[in-house]
Amino acid sequence: MATDVIVPTLGESITEATLGQWLKQPGEAVKADEPIASLETDKVAVEVNAPTAGVLAEHVASEGDTVQVGAVIARIQEGASAATAATPAVEDRTAVGKAEAAQPPEPAAAPAGVATPVGYGNHGEAEEGGTGGQTLSPSVRRAVLEHGLDPSKIKGTGKDGRLTKDDVLLAARTAPAAAAAVSAPAPSVTAPAPSAAGGRKEERVRMSRLRQTVAKRLKEAQNTAAMLTTFNDVDMSEVIAARAKYKDLFEKKHGVRLGFMGFFVKAACQALRDIPAVNGSIEGDEIVYHDYADISVAVSAPNGLVVPVIRDAQDMSVATIEKTIGDFGKRAKDGTLKMEEMKGGTFTISNGGVFGSLMSTPIINPPQSAVLGLHRIDERPVVRDGQVVVRPMMYLALSYDHRLIDGREAVTFLVALKNAIEDPTRLLIDL
Question: Which residues are catalytic?
Answer without folding.
Answer: 402, 406
